[in-house]
Amino acid sequence: MATNSLTAPGRLALAGVSAIGVTFGFARYGYGLFLPELRGEFGLSVSLVGLIGSATYAGYLVALLLVGALVARFGPRPLVLVGGLSAAVGMSLVALARGPGLLITGLILAGTSSGWAWAPYSDAVDRVVPAGRREQVMGTIASGTAFAVVVAGPLALLARGMGWRYAWLVFALAALAASAYNARVLPRGPGRTARTAGRLTYRRPALPLLLTAVLYGIVGAFYWSFAVEAISDAAGTGSATAPLFWSLMGAAGTAGALTGHAVARYGLRRVHAGLFAGIAAAVALLGLAPGSLPAVAVSALLYGPCFMAGSGILAVWSYRVFPERPSAGFSVTVFFLGLGTIAGPALLGAYAELHGLRAAFLVTAGVAALALVCAPTRNVLPHGRNPEQDAGTAERNHRERARLRVLGDRR
Length: 411
Fold this sequence. Notes:
By secondary structure, this protein is mainly α. It has one domain (12-189, 204-380): Growth Hormone, Chain: A (Up-down Bundle), CATH 1.20.1250. It has helices at residues 8-28, 30-33, 35-42, 46-74, 76-96, 100-117, 120-128, 134-142, 144-158, 164-185, 192-196, 206-235, 241-253, 259-266, 268-288, 293-321, 326-355, 357-370, 387-410. α15 runs antiparallel to α18 (357-370). The longest helix is centred in the middle third of the chain and has 30 residues, at 206-235. The chain is globular. The termini are far apart.
Protein backbone atom coordinates (compact mmCIF):
# COMPACT_ATOMS: atom_id res chain seq x y z
CA MET A 1 0.00 0.00 0.00
CA ALA A 2 1.34 3.43 -0.95
CA THR A 3 2.02 5.55 2.09
CA ASN A 4 0.26 8.51 0.43
CA SER A 5 -3.04 6.62 0.75
CA LEU A 6 -2.66 6.41 4.53
CA THR A 7 -4.28 8.85 6.92
CA ALA A 8 -2.07 11.09 9.08
CA PRO A 9 -2.39 8.71 12.07
CA GLY A 10 -1.58 5.78 9.76
CA ARG A 11 1.56 7.50 8.43
CA LEU A 12 2.64 8.34 11.96
CA ALA A 13 2.10 4.74 13.07
CA LEU A 14 4.19 3.46 10.13
CA ALA A 15 6.93 5.99 10.87
CA GLY A 16 6.93 4.96 14.53
CA VAL A 17 7.03 1.24 13.75
CA SER A 18 10.02 1.77 11.44
CA ALA A 19 11.94 3.94 13.92
CA ILE A 20 11.28 1.68 16.91
CA GLY A 21 12.11 -1.34 14.77
CA VAL A 22 15.57 -0.15 13.79
CA THR A 23 16.48 1.44 17.12
CA PHE A 24 15.29 -1.42 19.33
CA GLY A 25 15.07 -4.51 17.10
CA PHE A 26 18.39 -3.89 15.36
CA ALA A 27 20.51 -1.33 17.23
CA ARG A 28 19.82 -2.53 20.76
CA TYR A 29 18.79 -6.18 20.56
CA GLY A 30 21.03 -7.13 17.64
CA TYR A 31 23.84 -7.38 20.19
CA GLY A 32 22.22 -10.39 21.83
CA LEU A 33 21.37 -12.07 18.53
CA PHE A 34 24.98 -11.95 17.29
CA LEU A 35 26.58 -12.49 20.70
CA PRO A 36 28.08 -15.93 19.89
CA GLU A 37 29.84 -14.44 16.83
CA LEU A 38 31.01 -11.37 18.74
CA ARG A 39 32.32 -13.46 21.64
CA GLY A 40 34.17 -15.76 19.27
CA GLU A 41 35.80 -12.97 17.28
CA PHE A 42 36.63 -10.54 20.08
CA GLY A 43 37.20 -12.98 22.98
CA LEU A 44 34.56 -11.55 25.33
CA SER A 45 33.88 -13.21 28.71
CA VAL A 46 30.34 -13.61 30.06
CA SER A 47 30.87 -10.94 32.72
CA LEU A 48 32.33 -8.52 30.13
CA VAL A 49 29.36 -9.21 27.88
CA GLY A 50 27.10 -8.17 30.76
CA LEU A 51 29.10 -4.99 31.38
CA ILE A 52 28.96 -4.05 27.69
CA GLY A 53 25.23 -4.65 27.70
CA SER A 54 24.85 -2.37 30.72
CA ALA A 55 27.01 0.28 29.04
CA THR A 56 24.74 0.30 25.99
CA TYR A 57 21.76 0.81 28.25
CA ALA A 58 23.58 3.58 30.11
CA GLY A 59 23.89 5.44 26.80
CA TYR A 60 20.18 4.87 26.31
CA LEU A 61 19.50 6.41 29.71
CA VAL A 62 21.59 9.51 28.96
CA ALA A 63 19.63 10.02 25.74
CA LEU A 64 16.35 9.72 27.65
CA LEU A 65 17.41 12.45 30.09
CA LEU A 66 18.23 14.75 27.20
CA VAL A 67 14.92 13.99 25.48
CA GLY A 68 12.97 14.95 28.59
CA ALA A 69 14.73 18.32 28.61
CA LEU A 70 14.65 19.02 24.86
CA VAL A 71 11.32 17.76 23.54
CA ALA A 72 9.32 20.72 24.86
CA ARG A 73 11.64 23.14 23.06
CA PHE A 74 12.27 21.36 19.76
CA GLY A 75 9.39 18.91 19.38
CA PRO A 76 9.66 15.18 18.54
CA ARG A 77 11.03 15.33 14.99
CA PRO A 78 14.72 16.28 15.54
CA LEU A 79 15.06 13.90 18.50
CA VAL A 80 13.75 10.92 16.54
CA LEU A 81 16.12 11.80 13.70
CA VAL A 82 19.08 11.94 16.11
CA GLY A 83 18.05 8.47 17.25
CA GLY A 84 17.94 7.11 13.72
CA LEU A 85 21.33 8.57 12.82
CA SER A 86 22.86 7.28 16.07
CA ALA A 87 21.62 3.82 15.14
CA ALA A 88 23.02 4.07 11.61
CA VAL A 89 26.46 5.34 12.65
CA GLY A 90 26.76 3.03 15.65
CA MET A 91 25.85 -0.10 13.70
CA SER A 92 28.26 0.90 10.93
CA LEU A 93 31.06 1.12 13.51
CA VAL A 94 30.17 -2.36 14.79
CA ALA A 95 30.32 -3.73 11.25
CA LEU A 96 33.75 -2.17 10.67
CA ALA A 97 35.27 -2.93 14.09
CA ARG A 98 38.59 -4.78 14.18
CA GLY A 99 39.04 -4.63 17.94
CA PRO A 100 36.96 -4.42 21.13
CA GLY A 101 37.39 -0.63 21.43
CA LEU A 102 35.57 0.29 18.21
CA LEU A 103 33.05 -2.52 18.77
CA ILE A 104 32.07 -1.19 22.21
CA THR A 105 31.95 2.40 20.93
CA GLY A 106 29.60 1.38 18.13
CA LEU A 107 27.39 -0.68 20.43
CA ILE A 108 27.06 2.15 22.96
CA LEU A 109 26.27 4.73 20.27
CA ALA A 110 23.72 2.41 18.69
CA GLY A 111 22.28 1.75 22.15
CA THR A 112 21.53 5.45 22.65
CA SER A 113 19.28 5.47 19.59
CA SER A 114 16.23 3.96 21.24
CA GLY A 115 16.50 6.49 24.07
CA TRP A 116 16.30 9.33 21.54
CA ALA A 117 13.52 7.81 19.47
CA TRP A 118 10.92 6.22 21.73
CA ALA A 119 9.60 8.85 24.16
CA PRO A 120 9.05 11.66 21.58
CA TYR A 121 6.29 9.63 19.93
CA SER A 122 4.07 10.34 22.93
CA ASP A 123 4.04 14.01 21.90
CA ALA A 124 3.72 13.17 18.21
CA VAL A 125 0.71 10.94 18.85
CA ASP A 126 -0.84 13.56 21.12
CA ARG A 127 -0.57 16.14 18.31
CA VAL A 128 -1.57 14.04 15.28
CA VAL A 129 -3.96 11.31 16.44
CA PRO A 130 -7.56 11.90 17.61
CA ALA A 131 -8.10 11.21 21.31
CA GLY A 132 -10.08 8.00 20.80
CA ARG A 133 -7.31 6.33 18.79
CA ARG A 134 -4.17 7.39 20.67
CA GLU A 135 -3.74 4.29 22.83
CA GLN A 136 -4.14 1.99 19.81
CA VAL A 137 -1.55 3.92 17.80
CA MET A 138 0.88 3.97 20.74
CA GLY A 139 0.52 0.20 21.11
CA THR A 140 1.14 -0.28 17.40
CA ILE A 141 4.28 1.89 17.43
CA ALA A 142 5.71 -0.05 20.39
CA SER A 143 5.36 -3.30 18.40
CA GLY A 144 7.91 -2.11 15.84
CA THR A 145 10.57 -4.07 17.71
CA ALA A 146 8.81 -7.34 16.87
CA PHE A 147 8.72 -6.66 13.14
CA ALA A 148 12.45 -5.91 13.12
CA VAL A 149 13.23 -9.05 15.13
CA VAL A 150 11.35 -11.12 12.53
CA VAL A 151 13.72 -9.77 9.86
CA ALA A 152 16.86 -10.04 12.01
CA GLY A 153 16.52 -13.78 12.72
CA PRO A 154 16.69 -15.04 9.09
CA LEU A 155 19.39 -12.46 8.33
CA ALA A 156 21.49 -13.86 11.18
CA LEU A 157 20.98 -17.36 9.76
CA LEU A 158 22.21 -16.24 6.34
CA ALA A 159 25.11 -14.25 7.77
CA ARG A 160 26.56 -16.88 10.10
CA GLY A 161 30.29 -16.81 10.71
CA MET A 162 32.13 -13.79 9.31
CA GLY A 163 29.01 -12.66 7.46
CA TRP A 164 27.68 -11.00 10.61
CA ARG A 165 29.36 -7.74 9.53
CA TYR A 166 27.21 -7.56 6.40
CA ALA A 167 24.11 -8.00 8.54
CA TRP A 168 25.05 -4.99 10.64
CA LEU A 169 25.59 -2.91 7.49
CA VAL A 170 22.09 -3.88 6.34
CA PHE A 171 20.80 -2.79 9.74
CA ALA A 172 22.56 0.58 9.34
CA LEU A 173 21.00 1.15 5.90
CA ALA A 174 17.56 0.33 7.32
CA ALA A 175 18.12 2.95 10.03
CA LEU A 176 18.89 5.59 7.37
CA ALA A 177 15.74 4.68 5.43
CA ALA A 178 13.58 4.87 8.57
CA SER A 179 15.10 8.26 9.45
CA ALA A 180 14.30 9.62 5.99
CA TYR A 181 10.66 8.56 6.28
CA ASN A 182 10.31 10.00 9.77
CA ALA A 183 11.76 13.29 8.53
CA ARG A 184 8.83 13.49 6.10
CA VAL A 185 6.07 12.42 8.48
CA LEU A 186 6.74 13.78 11.97
CA PRO A 187 5.29 17.18 12.92
CA ARG A 188 7.74 20.06 12.99
CA GLY A 189 8.42 22.29 15.95
CA PRO A 190 7.10 22.07 19.51
CA GLY A 191 3.39 21.61 20.00
CA ARG A 192 1.17 24.11 21.78
CA THR A 193 0.90 21.76 24.81
CA ALA A 194 4.68 21.39 25.00
CA ARG A 195 5.16 25.17 24.94
CA THR A 196 2.60 25.94 27.61
CA ALA A 197 2.61 22.96 29.99
CA GLY A 198 3.84 23.47 33.54
CA ARG A 199 6.09 21.28 35.63
CA LEU A 200 5.48 17.56 35.65
CA THR A 201 3.80 16.71 38.95
CA TYR A 202 4.10 13.46 40.89
CA ARG A 203 0.95 11.48 41.62
CA ARG A 204 0.42 8.23 43.49
CA PRO A 205 -0.68 6.10 40.48
CA ALA A 206 2.84 6.64 39.10
CA LEU A 207 4.51 4.45 41.76
CA PRO A 208 3.43 1.02 40.44
CA LEU A 209 4.12 2.26 36.90
CA LEU A 210 7.71 3.19 37.73
CA LEU A 211 8.36 -0.02 39.71
CA THR A 212 7.00 -2.07 36.83
CA ALA A 213 9.28 -0.18 34.45
CA VAL A 214 12.37 -1.03 36.54
CA LEU A 215 11.50 -4.74 36.73
CA TYR A 216 10.59 -4.85 33.03
CA GLY A 217 13.96 -3.30 32.22
CA ILE A 218 15.93 -5.79 34.35
CA VAL A 219 14.21 -8.83 32.84
CA GLY A 220 14.19 -7.59 29.25
CA ALA A 221 17.82 -6.52 29.19
CA PHE A 222 19.02 -9.86 30.52
CA TYR A 223 16.79 -11.96 28.26
CA TRP A 224 17.70 -10.07 25.09
CA SER A 225 21.41 -10.17 25.97
CA PHE A 226 21.72 -13.83 26.96
CA ALA A 227 18.85 -15.88 25.48
CA VAL A 228 20.74 -16.75 22.29
CA GLU A 229 23.88 -17.48 24.31
CA ALA A 230 21.99 -19.91 26.57
CA ILE A 231 20.38 -21.68 23.62
CA SER A 232 23.66 -21.84 21.68
CA ASP A 233 25.50 -23.25 24.70
CA ALA A 234 22.91 -26.03 25.02
CA ALA A 235 22.34 -26.75 21.32
CA GLY A 236 25.83 -25.99 19.98
CA THR A 237 27.06 -22.84 18.25
CA GLY A 238 26.60 -24.37 14.80
CA SER A 239 22.91 -25.05 15.41
CA ALA A 240 20.21 -23.08 13.62
CA THR A 241 18.03 -23.20 16.75
CA ALA A 242 19.02 -19.76 18.06
CA PRO A 243 18.28 -17.73 14.87
CA LEU A 244 15.02 -19.64 14.38
CA PHE A 245 14.11 -18.94 18.01
CA TRP A 246 14.76 -15.23 17.38
CA SER A 247 12.53 -15.20 14.29
CA LEU A 248 9.75 -17.10 16.06
CA MET A 249 9.92 -14.67 18.97
CA GLY A 250 9.65 -11.71 16.61
CA ALA A 251 6.80 -13.23 14.59
CA ALA A 252 4.83 -13.95 17.75
CA GLY A 253 5.69 -10.50 19.05
CA THR A 254 3.84 -8.77 16.21
CA ALA A 255 0.71 -9.51 18.23
CA GLY A 256 1.94 -6.69 20.47
CA ALA A 257 0.37 -4.33 17.92
CA LEU A 258 -2.97 -5.27 19.50
CA THR A 259 -1.97 -3.97 22.93
CA GLY A 260 -4.20 -0.91 22.71
CA HIS A 261 -7.19 -3.03 21.69
CA ALA A 262 -6.53 -5.49 24.53
CA VAL A 263 -6.36 -2.70 27.12
CA ALA A 264 -9.58 -1.19 25.81
CA ARG A 265 -11.37 -4.54 26.04
CA TYR A 266 -9.94 -6.16 29.18
CA GLY A 267 -8.53 -3.24 31.16
CA LEU A 268 -5.01 -2.29 32.15
CA ARG A 269 -4.86 -4.47 35.28
CA ARG A 270 -5.82 -7.73 33.57
CA VAL A 271 -3.53 -7.19 30.60
CA HIS A 272 -0.64 -6.26 32.93
CA ALA A 273 -1.12 -9.48 34.96
CA GLY A 274 -1.30 -11.69 31.88
CA LEU A 275 1.78 -10.16 30.28
CA PHE A 276 4.07 -10.48 33.28
CA ALA A 277 2.91 -14.00 34.06
CA GLY A 278 3.79 -14.90 30.47
CA ILE A 279 7.20 -13.20 30.65
CA ALA A 280 8.07 -14.99 33.90
CA ALA A 281 7.13 -18.37 32.39
CA ALA A 282 9.10 -17.68 29.19
CA VAL A 283 12.25 -16.75 31.10
CA ALA A 284 11.93 -19.75 33.43
CA LEU A 285 11.77 -22.15 30.46
CA LEU A 286 15.23 -21.07 29.29
CA GLY A 287 16.53 -21.69 32.79
CA LEU A 288 14.94 -25.13 33.01
CA ALA A 289 15.49 -26.55 29.51
CA PRO A 290 17.49 -24.33 27.11
CA GLY A 291 18.46 -27.41 25.07
CA SER A 292 14.88 -28.60 24.53
CA LEU A 293 13.39 -27.47 21.23
CA PRO A 294 9.78 -27.50 22.55
CA ALA A 295 10.78 -25.47 25.62
CA VAL A 296 12.70 -22.96 23.48
CA ALA A 297 9.76 -22.64 21.08
CA VAL A 298 7.25 -22.09 23.88
CA SER A 299 9.57 -19.53 25.46
CA ALA A 300 9.71 -17.62 22.17
CA LEU A 301 5.95 -17.83 21.67
CA LEU A 302 5.32 -16.51 25.18
CA TYR A 303 8.06 -13.92 25.44
CA GLY A 304 7.57 -12.34 22.00
CA PRO A 305 4.00 -11.06 22.38
CA CYS A 306 4.22 -10.49 26.15
CA PHE A 307 7.40 -8.44 26.03
CA MET A 308 6.38 -6.43 22.97
CA ALA A 309 3.00 -5.69 24.52
CA GLY A 310 4.79 -4.74 27.75
CA SER A 311 6.35 -1.70 26.10
CA GLY A 312 2.92 -0.75 24.79
CA ILE A 313 1.45 -1.14 28.27
CA LEU A 314 4.06 1.27 29.67
CA ALA A 315 3.26 3.78 26.93
CA VAL A 316 -0.52 3.62 27.52
CA TRP A 317 -0.17 3.56 31.30
CA SER A 318 2.21 6.53 31.29
CA TYR A 319 -0.11 8.50 29.04
CA ARG A 320 -2.95 7.96 31.52
CA VAL A 321 -0.86 8.98 34.52
CA PHE A 322 0.81 12.02 32.88
CA PRO A 323 -1.71 13.37 30.34
CA GLU A 324 -0.64 17.00 30.64
CA ARG A 325 2.93 16.34 29.41
CA PRO A 326 2.98 12.99 27.62
CA SER A 327 6.59 12.98 26.38
CA ALA A 328 8.02 14.25 29.66
CA GLY A 329 5.95 11.71 31.60
CA PHE A 330 6.96 8.89 29.31
CA SER A 331 10.60 9.98 29.55
CA VAL A 332 10.37 9.57 33.33
CA THR A 333 8.81 6.13 32.86
CA VAL A 334 11.45 5.02 30.40
CA PHE A 335 14.16 6.52 32.64
CA PHE A 336 13.15 4.05 35.34
CA LEU A 337 13.04 1.31 32.71
CA GLY A 338 16.58 2.37 31.81
CA LEU A 339 17.72 1.98 35.41
CA GLY A 340 16.58 -1.63 35.23
CA THR A 341 18.27 -2.24 31.89
CA ILE A 342 21.59 -1.01 33.28
CA ALA A 343 21.37 -3.17 36.39
CA GLY A 344 20.09 -6.32 34.66
CA PRO A 345 22.98 -7.39 32.37
CA ALA A 346 25.76 -6.36 34.78
CA LEU A 347 24.36 -7.93 37.97
CA LEU A 348 22.80 -11.02 36.42
CA GLY A 349 25.76 -11.45 34.07
CA ALA A 350 28.08 -11.52 37.08
CA TYR A 351 25.74 -14.01 38.76
CA ALA A 352 25.79 -16.17 35.62
CA GLU A 353 29.60 -16.12 35.64
CA LEU A 354 29.53 -17.71 39.13
CA HIS A 355 26.47 -19.97 38.93
CA GLY A 356 25.78 -20.49 35.24
CA LEU A 357 23.29 -19.02 32.80
CA ARG A 358 20.52 -21.45 33.68
CA ALA A 359 20.51 -20.36 37.32
CA ALA A 360 20.58 -16.71 36.26
CA PHE A 361 17.53 -17.24 34.05
CA LEU A 362 15.61 -18.75 36.97
CA VAL A 363 16.49 -15.77 39.17
CA THR A 364 15.36 -13.44 36.36
CA ALA A 365 12.04 -15.29 36.14
CA GLY A 366 11.53 -14.53 39.83
CA VAL A 367 12.21 -10.83 39.15
CA ALA A 368 9.56 -10.88 36.40
CA ALA A 369 7.04 -12.44 38.80
CA LEU A 370 7.58 -9.53 41.22
CA ALA A 371 5.98 -7.23 38.66
CA LEU A 372 2.65 -8.97 39.33
CA VAL A 373 2.60 -7.19 42.69
CA CYS A 374 2.98 -3.78 41.00
CA ALA A 375 -0.41 -3.81 39.28
CA PRO A 376 -1.94 -0.58 37.96
CA THR A 377 -4.11 1.08 40.57
CA ARG A 378 -7.83 0.85 39.99
CA ASN A 379 -8.16 4.62 39.87
CA VAL A 380 -6.15 5.00 36.64
CA LEU A 381 -8.75 5.78 34.01
CA PRO A 382 -8.46 6.34 30.25
CA HIS A 383 -6.85 9.54 29.00
CA GLY A 384 -4.88 10.17 32.16
CA ARG A 385 -7.82 10.92 34.45
CA ASN A 386 -8.16 9.45 37.91
CA PRO A 387 -10.62 9.92 40.76
CA GLU A 388 -8.15 11.99 42.76
CA GLN A 389 -7.89 14.49 39.92
CA ASP A 390 -11.64 14.39 39.28
CA ALA A 391 -12.35 14.91 42.98
CA GLY A 392 -9.95 17.84 43.08
CA THR A 393 -11.56 19.36 40.00
CA ALA A 394 -15.05 18.88 41.46
CA GLU A 395 -13.98 20.50 44.73
CA ARG A 396 -12.47 23.49 42.90
CA ASN A 397 -15.62 23.86 40.81
CA HIS A 398 -17.77 23.69 43.95
CA ARG A 399 -15.69 26.41 45.64
CA GLU A 400 -15.86 28.58 42.53
CA ARG A 401 -19.65 28.25 42.31
CA ALA A 402 -19.95 29.11 46.01
CA ARG A 403 -17.72 32.17 45.53
CA LEU A 404 -19.84 33.37 42.61
CA ARG A 405 -23.03 32.90 44.64
CA VAL A 406 -21.56 35.01 47.47
CA LEU A 407 -20.58 37.74 45.02
CA GLY A 408 -24.06 37.64 43.51
CA ASP A 409 -25.67 37.97 46.93
CA ARG A 410 -23.45 40.95 47.76
CA ARG A 411 -24.51 42.66 44.55
